[in-house]
From TrEMBL, chain A:
<dbReference type="InterPro" id="IPR043737">
    <property type="entry name" value="DUF5682"/>
</dbReference>
<dbReference type="Pfam" id="PF18934">
    <property type="entry name" value="DUF5682"/>
</dbReference>
<protein>
    <submittedName>
        <fullName>Uncharacterized protein</fullName>
    </submittedName>
</protein>
UniProtKB/TrEMBL annotation, chain B:
<protein>
    <submittedName>
        <fullName>MoxR-like ATPase</fullName>
    </submittedName>
</protein>
<dbReference type="GO" id="GO:0005524">
    <property type="term" value="F:ATP binding"/>
</dbReference>
<dbReference type="GO" id="GO:0016887">
    <property type="term" value="F:ATP hydrolysis activity"/>
</dbReference>
<dbReference type="InterPro" id="IPR050764">
    <property type="entry name" value="CbbQ/NirQ/NorQ/GpvN"/>
</dbReference>
<dbReference type="InterPro" id="IPR027417">
    <property type="entry name" value="P-loop_NTPase"/>
</dbReference>
<dbReference type="InterPro" id="IPR011704">
    <property type="entry name" value="ATPase_dyneun-rel_AAA"/>
</dbReference>
<dbReference type="Pfam" id="PF07728">
    <property type="entry name" value="AAA_5"/>
</dbReference>
<feature type="domain" description="ATPase dynein-related AAA">
    <location>
        <begin position="77"/>
        <end position="215"/>
    </location>
</feature>
C-alpha cells in the first residue's frame, strides 16, 4: 500500500502539467483532492461536455444561502486535472478538508464573539485590523533574492521540465524545510483543524483497503499529510474541539468567468492573469511566439497597425530581457515590457487592450442544465416561465400595459430585478404618455446569471432578495432623499412588507437631521408616493403623517436656510423651492398650502437672501394669488428700482421668470415695469448685464422669444386688457361641462 | 584649463573600471561589459568587492532593463518623453557603459541637413581629385558604423521629416550606400543608435511610422513620488557643486523639498494634500528645471549671499522657471502664491521673497 502526497499550487499551470504526468505514472486507485467533503458529490459532473471551465463549485447553507463559499476551477487547475483523471479512469475521487458546515459554524461563532467584544469595548475604539498572514514562501523568496513568493515559485517550479516524480519531491522538500523552520502564520490555527480532518479522510481511504492513494493538496499541507499515524492522538483532540453543527449544506456547479478567477475565493488568492495561464496550458510549443501573434491580432482588431516584424522584434526583446534578468524562461512581465516598447511606442494605455482581452480574457464557463440550482436561481427561472419571458442575447423590447394582469406582474418582476442590479432589463421611456404603459428593453448575457447568483445570499426568492436590498440600503442610508428614492422603487416592485422600516427610518433621520436641502429634495418624491396610496391598495397613511411633519420642519427653518447663500447654492435652493411648491400644489391640502405661503412670505421679507430666491418666491406667491395687485406692483417695482445693483436685478429676474417668458407676454403690467427698467439702463450697464439676462432668456422657447421681441417693438403697452365681448350664443352649462376634463388634464401626472 | 563639464566616461571612470573587473556575465560583441553590468551602472548598487556604484537613473528599473535589452538586439533605442526627464542623461550614460565612448553625437536641429547624417564632401579635395573616398567627410553615424560603436542622435523630432527618413535604411539594412563612389559602408557588429525625442514641444516633426518601427521606445516619465524627485535633484546638484566649484554648502534638504513640492503641485494641478485644485503653467515644469533652480540659487548664495541657500536666492530663478508666458503663467503663479504658499505657516520666507520680485 502506498500514499503519494502531491503538493501543488492552486491554479498553477506548471503544477497541473506535472500532476497530469505524475497521475499517468502512478495510476492510483483513489484520488483525494483538497476541498470540503461536501463537494465530492458534484465531482461526477466533471468530464461532461456541458461542464466547461471556468466554473466553480458553490457550497451554501441550505437554510441561509448567505453562508456560502466558492471553489473555482479553470481547465489548468491541478484539482480539475485530478478530478478529470479520476472520472476518465473510473476511479473514486473525494474531497479532503474541513467540512464547509463546520467552517460556517466557526465563522458564525467568531462573528458572534466579535460582536460581544465590540459591545464590551463600547464599540467606539477601532480594533486593529488582523495582520495579513505572510506567505511563508515569500520569506524564502526574499532570501533567494526574488520580489515575491509568486516569482520564486514561478522561477523554480512553473517553467521546469524535470521529471514529475522529482518535481513533487523537490516541492515536498522545500515545504518540509519551511515547516521545520517553525514559521508562524496567522492561518496556523485554521490549518491545524483542516490538516487533522485531511488526515482523517486519508485514514478512512486506507481503511477501505485502497492500495494506491494519491492526495492532491496545496503544497504547504503536503509535509503534514505523509505520516498519518503519528498524529492520531493529537487529531482526536483537535477534532473533538471542533464545534458541532446541524447546518445542512448543498453543493452545486455554477458558471464562472476569467475575471472572477482573478478574485480571491475558497482556494485562496485569485490569479492575476487567467488568460495567460490558459495560454500556457493549451499551447504545446512556441508559447511566446503564439502569444505575441495573439497580441498582434488583438491590436489589429482594435485598428492599431501591427506587422509581423513587430512580432519578431518583440520576441527578440523579450528574450534579451529574460537574459538580463537571469531567467531561463520568458514570463509575462518580459512579454509586457517588450510589447510596450516595440508595439506600443512605450505607451502604457495601448497595453490595456492586451490586459483586458488576453491576459485576463473574457472566457465564460457553462454548466449542465440538470445540475441542482440554488433557490434564488430556481425562483428566477420559475418566474420566467410563469411570466412567459425568454433570455435572449438579442435585444428584445417589452411593451407593458399595466391594466393587463400578466403585464402588471411582469412589471413588478422587472422592478424587483432592477433593485437587484441585474442589468438584463433597462427601462426605456414609453412613446405613449400615461401611467399604465411601460417599455423595457431586455438583453441577456450569460454572466448575468453569475450576478444573480451573487445575490443568492440575500434571499431564496427574487421578491425576498429585492426586499433585502431595500432594507440593507435603507439601514445604511444617511439622507432622507435616498430613502425616498427607495420608497419610490419599492412601490412598483410591490415590496410592501417592509415599507414600515423605510418609513420609520425616514422618521429617525428627520428627527436628527438639520439638512434642510435634503428635506426639500426628498419631499416632492414623498408627496408623490403618498398620493399612490389609494391606487396600490397599500396603507400609506403613516407616510402622510410623516410628510406633514417634514413640512412643518421645512416651514420653520426654510427662511433661515436661505440666509447668506452664495449664487451657486441659491440656484440649487431656488430649484428645490420651485419643485416643492409644485408638489404642495398636488398635495391639495388648504391648511398646508396656507402654511407654505406664510413661509414664502417670511423669505420674501428676510434680509440677506439672494435675489434669485426672492425673485422665485415672489413669482410663486404671485402665481398662488397671494398678492393683491397693489402689493405685487410694489414688490416688482421695488425689485426693479434703479438704485438696485444691476446684477441683483438680473438675478431676481432669473428667479422670477423661472425659465419661461409666458408671463411677460400675457401680463402687460409686468411687461411695462420691466420695459421701463430696461430703458433706464445706460449703455455700459446694459452691456455688463447682457450675459446675465441672456442666461435667463435663452432658456425660453423659441416662440416665446419671438413673441417677446415683437412685443418689444410696440414698447409700453397702454391699452387696458382687451375683454372679449360675450356672444349671445354662449351656453354656460355646456362650457362648464368640459371643465372637469380640462382640470383632469391640468393635474400633473407623476 | 579644465573643461566645464567632464564626460561621463571621465567622471565615472573608476566605477566603469570596477564594473569591468567584476563582470562575470557574457559580454556581447562590441560591448565592454555585460548587459547586467550596464543595468547596474545605470541603477547603482554594490559590487562583489563592495565597491559602491552611484545611481545614474533614479526611477523604474524595468525601463533601464528594456533600454539595455534593446541594445543587445539589433534594434535602435528611442528615449521619448517631455523635456527635462533625463533622456539625454540616460543616453549618454548608457552609451558610455556599453562602448566607453559617448562622443559620436549628432545634435538634431531644424536646420540639420542630410549630409550631417550620411556624409559630406571636402569640396577642395573633391575639385582636385574628383569623388574619392578620401574626399568624404565622415559623420558620427558613419564612424559608428565603421567602428561598431553606438551613435547618439539628440532631439530626433527636431530634424525635418525628410532628413529623418535617411535613417531608415541605416537602421533596417545596417548599410549606408555611397552612390557617388558606387560603394557602401556596412555596419560592424556592435553598431547601434540611441536617439532622444520630445513629444511635447513647439515645432516637433512626428516620426513617420516607417521610422518608428525601427525603434524600440522607452518613455521616460516624470518622477513617480516626491521622494524620488528630491533624490534626483539632490544628487545632480551635489555633483554640479563639484563641477562648478561653487563655494556654497550643499543645500539644505528643506529648500530642495520645497522646490520639488512647488514643481510637483504645479505640474499635477493639485496640492500635495489633494485639497486644492490648481492651474498648471503653459510650459512643462520638469525635474531638470528644479535642478537648475537650485543651482541658480546656490550660485546666487555663493556670490552675493552668505553661502547658505535661502528662500531669497531661490525666488528669482523659481519665478523665472515657472512664468514662461508673461500673461497666462503670471496669473497661475500669482494664484498659487496667494492661495497655497501664503497659507503655509513655515513658507512665510519664500512667500515674502517671491512677493518682492513681483
Amino acid at each position: 500500500m502506498s500514499i503519494h502526497i502531491l503538493g501543488i499550487r492552486h491554479h498553477g499551470v506548471g503544477s497541473a502539467k506535472q500532476l497530469k504526468n505524475e497521475l499517468e505514472r502512478l495510476q492510483p486507485d483513489i484520488i483525494l483532492v483538497e476541498g470540503p467533503p461536501e463537494i465530492t458529490e458534484v465531482f461526477t459532473y466533471v468530464g461532461e461536455k456541458a461542464l466547461q471551465p471556468p466554473v466553480a463549485i458553490m457550497v451554501y447553507n441550505s437554510v441561509d444561502p448567505k453562508e456560502s463559499t466558492f471553489y473555482p476551477f479553470a481547465s489548468y487547475s491541478p484539482e480539475w486535472v485530478a478530478i478529470s483523471h479520476a472520472n476518465k479512469n473510473k476511479i473514486p475521487v473525494r474531497a479532503l478538508d474541513l467540512p464547509a458546515a463546520i467552517s460556517f459554524e466557526k465563522a458564525r461563532i467568531q462573528s458572534e464573539n466579535k460582536k460581544e467584544e465590540a459591545e464590551d469595548a463600547n464599540s467606539e475604539i477601532d480594533k486593529p485590523l488582523p495582520i495579513i498572514p505572510q506567505d511563508p514562501i515569500s520569506i524564502l523568496a526574499e532570501t533567494d533574492g526574488f520580489s515575491s513568493g509568486e516569482a520564486w515559485w514561478e522561477h523554480h517550479f512553473e517553467y521546469n521540465t524535470i521529471e514529475s516524480e522529482a518535481h513533487f519531491k523537490s516541492v515536498y522538500h522545500v515545504m518540509n524545510a519551511l515547516r521545520e523552520e517553525g514559521l508562524k502564520s496567522s492561518l496556523d490555527d485554521e490549518n491545524v483543524a483542516r490538516e487533522a480532518y485531511m488526515r482523517q479522510i486519508i485514514t478512512e481511504a486506507r481503511n477501505e483497503m485502497y492500495e494506491n492513494i494519491v492526495v492532491v493538496c496545496g503544497a504547504w499541507h503536503a509535509p503534514a499529510l505523509t505520516d498519518v499515524d503519528s498524529y492520531v492522538k493529537e487529531d482526536r483532540k483537535t477534532l473533538k474541539q471542533l464545534p458541532k453543527t446541524k447546518i445542512k449544506t448543498i453543493a452545486t456547479w455554477i458558471p464562472w468567468t476569467n475575471k472572477r478567477l482573478s478574485m480571491a475565493s475558497g482556494y485562496g488568492a485569485g490569479i492575476y492573469s487567467p488568460g495567460w495561464y490558459n495560454h500556457l496550458w493549451v499551447t504545446e510549443e512556441d508559447t511566446e511566439i503564439n502569444w505575441l501573434t495573439k497580441v498582434a491580432e488583438t491590436f489589429r482588431a482594435n485598428k492599431i497597425d501591427t506587422s509581423t516584424a513587430h512580432v519578431i522584434e518583440s520576441f527578440k526583446l523579450a528574450r534579451s530581457l529574460a537574459a538580463i534578468r537571469n531567467k531561463h524562461f520568458v514570463s509575462l512581465s518580459e512579454m509586457n515590457d517588450a510589447i510596450r516598447s516595440v508595439m506600443c511606442m512605450g505607451d502604457e494605455i495601448l497595453l490595456d487592450y492586451v490586459n483586458k482581452e488576453l491576459i485576463i480574457g473574457n472566457a465564460l464557463g457553462t454548466v449542465p442544465n440538470d445540475i441542482p440550482k440554488m433557490p434564488l436561481q430556481e425562483d428566477f427561472e420559475i418566474n420566467l416561465k410563469q411570466l412567459r419571458l425568454k433570455l435572449t442575447a438579442d435585444p428584445k423590447i417589452y411593451q407593458l400595459d399595466l391594466r393587463k394582469e400578466l403585464d402588471q406582474n411582469r412589471s413588478t418582476f422587472f422592478h424587483r430585478l432592477e433593485l437587484l442590479n441585474l442589468n438584463w432589463l433597462v427601462r426605456r421611456s414609453s412613446r405613449t404618455k400615461g401611467t399604465f404603459k411601460e417599455t423595457w428593453e431586455a438583453q441577456w448575457s450569460p454572466d448575468m446569471m453569475i450576478a444573480l447568483i451573487d445575490n443568492g445570499f440575500l434571499g431564496n426568492t427574487v421578491e425576498a432578495a429585492a426586499q433585502a436590498v431595500v432594507v440593507n440600503e435603507c439601514i445604511n442610508a444617511k439622507k432622507i432623499e435616498t430613502i425616498a428614492t427607495l420608497l419610490q422603487k419599492s412601490i412598483p416592485a410591490e415590496l410592501f412588507e417592509d415599507l414600515h422600516i423605510l418609513i420609520s427610518r425616514i422618521n429617525e433621520i428627520a428627527s436628527i437631521s438639520v439638512d434642510i436641502l435634503d428635506l426639500l429634495k426628498a419631499l416632492p418624491n414623498l408627496i408623490n408616493i403618498s398620493r399612490y396610496g389609494d391606487v396600490r391598495n397599500s396603507d400609506l397613511s403613516v407616510l402622510n403623517h410623516i410628510v406633514q411633519q417634514l413640512l412643518i420642519k421645512v416651514n420653520t427653518s426654510l427662511a433661515n436656510a436661505c440666509y447668506g447663500l452664495d449664487e451657486e447654492n441659491s440656484s440649487a435652493m431656488f430649484e428645490e423651492i420651485s419643485k416643492l411648491n409644485h408638489a404642495i400644489g398636488i398635495y391639495d391640502d388648504a391648511e398646508i398650502e396656507a402654511e407654505w405661503f406664510a413661509t414664502l412670505h417670511k423669505i420674501l421679507h428676510k434680509d440677506g437672501v439672494h435675489p434669485i430666491i426672492i425673485g422665485c418666491v415672489c413669482r410663486l406667491l404671485l402665481d398662488g394669488q397671494q398678492f393683491t395687485d397693489e402689493v405685487a406692483d410694489q414688490h416688482i417695482s421695488y425689485a426693479l428700482s434703479i438704485n438696485n445693483l444691476p446684477e441683483t436685478v438680473a438675478a431676481w429676474l432669473q428667479g422670477f421668470l423661472k425659465g419661461s417668458g409666458m408671463i411677460l407676454i400675457y401680463d402687460n403690467r409686468l411687461w411695462n415695469l420691466i420695459y421701463t427698467w430696461v430703458s433706464t439702463l445706460n449703455k455700459e450697464t446694459f452691456i455688463e448685464l447682457l450675459p446675465m439676462l441672456r442666461r435667463s432668456f435663452s432658456n425660453f422657447e423659441f416662440s416665446e422669444r419671438r413673441q417677446i421681441g415683437e412685443k418689444a417693438k410696440e414698447g409700453i403697452i397702454t391699452e387696458k386688457t382687451t375683454k372679449t365681448t360675450l356672444d349671445s350664443n354662449f351656453d354656460e352649462d355646456l362650457a362648464n361641462s368640459i371643465l372637469p376634463t380640462i382640470a383632469h388634464f391640468l393635474t400633473p401626472q407623476s | 584649463m579644465e573643461t566645464l563639464r567632464q564626460s561621463a566616461a571621465e567622471q565615472f571612470s573608476e566605477e566603469l573600471e570596477n564594473l569591468k573587473k567584476q563582470d562575470s556575465g557574457k559580454v556581447p560583441a562590441g560591448w565592454q561589459m555585460s548587459p547586467q553590468s550596464v543595468v547596474t551602472y545605470l541603477m547603482g548598487g554594490k559590487l562583489k568587492n563592495n565597491f559602491e556604484i552611484s545611481p545614474k537613473y533614479i526611477g523604474d528599473r524595468r525601463l533601464m532593463e528594456v533600454a539595455v535589452a534593446t541594445l543587445t538586439t539589433d534594434r535602435a533605442l528611442l528615449l521619448y518623453g517631455i523635456p527635462g526627464t533625463g533622456k539625454s542623461w540616460v543616453s549618454e550614460h548608457i552609451t558610455t557603459a556599453v562602448t566607453g565612448d559617448a562622443s559620436l553625437l549628432i545634435q538634431g536641429t531644424a536646420g540639420l541637413g542630410e549630409e550631417a547624417i550620411r556624409y559630406g564632401w571636402n569640396y577642395a579635395k573633391l575639385l582636385a581629385e574628383g569623388p574619392t573616398e578620401s574626399a568624404l567627410v565622415i559623420t558620427p553615424l558613419m564612424r559608428a558604423m565603421k567602428t561598431g560603436a553606438i551613435a547618439r542622435i539628440e532631439e530626433l523630432t527636431r530634424i525635418s521629416a525628410d532628413v529623418q527618413d535617411t535613417l531608415i535604411t541605416v537602421l533596417s539594412e545596417k548599410i549606408m550606400p555611397i552612390p557617388e563612389l558606387s560603394m557602401e559602408v556596412r555596419a560592424n557588429k556592435g553598431f547601434n543608435v540611441v536617439a532622444t525625442a520630445n513629444n511635447r514641444d513647439k515645432g516637433v516633426n512626428e516620426l513617420s511610422s516607417a521610422l518608428k518601427r525601427r525603434f524600440n521606445t522607452v518613455i521616460l516619465p516624470t518622477p513617480n513620488t516626491a521622494a524620488e524627485e528630491i533624490n534626483i535633484v539632490k544628487t545632480r546638484v551635489a555633483s554640479s557643486i563639484k563641477s562648478l566649484e561653487l563655494p556654497a554648502e550643499v543645500p539644505s534638504l528643506k529648500e530642495i523639498e520645497r522646490i520639488v513640492q512647488i514643481f510637483r503641485e504645479l505640474r499635477h494641478g493639485v496640492t500635495t494634500d489633494g485639497r486644492t485644485k490648481l492651474k498648471s503653467p503653459t510650459s512643462t515644469v520638469s525635474t531638470a528645471e528644479a535642478i537648475s533652480v537650485v543651482n541658480n540659487g546656490l550660485s546666487l548664495a555663493a556670490h552675493f549671499g552668505n553661502g547658505e541657500l535661502t528662500a531669497y536666492d531661490v525666488a528669482s530663478s523659481l519665478v523665472g522657471a515657472i512664468v514662461k508666458d508673461p500673461v497666462q503663467d503670471a496669473v497661475v503663479w500669482k494664484e498659487y502664491l496667494e492661495t497655497v504658499v501664503k497659507t503655509r505657516e513655515d513658507w512665510k520666507d519664500i512667500y515674502r521673497a517671491c512677493k518682492e520680485i513681483g
